[in-house]
Amino acid sequence: MKKPTHEERHRACGGKRRYRSQGDALDAALLAGVERQRSAYRCELCGQWHLTSKPVRRDPR
Ligand SMILES: [Zn+2]
To answer: How many Å lie between the centroid of ligand 1 and the Cα of residue 14?
Structure first.
């Protein structure tokens, strides 16, 4: 298995906002009004949580 390059790590982790817990991450998504388009995952690189875009189909309201 190949190691992620510095840039890949940065893109997967360093370039993202970090949260201490899943709850914090989801709260932030909620505040931004995007909780339906985001899910939280625990990052292996920093051990904290990030938000990622959920592939959702567009709701015609
Ligand atoms: Zn991370």
So the answer is: 6
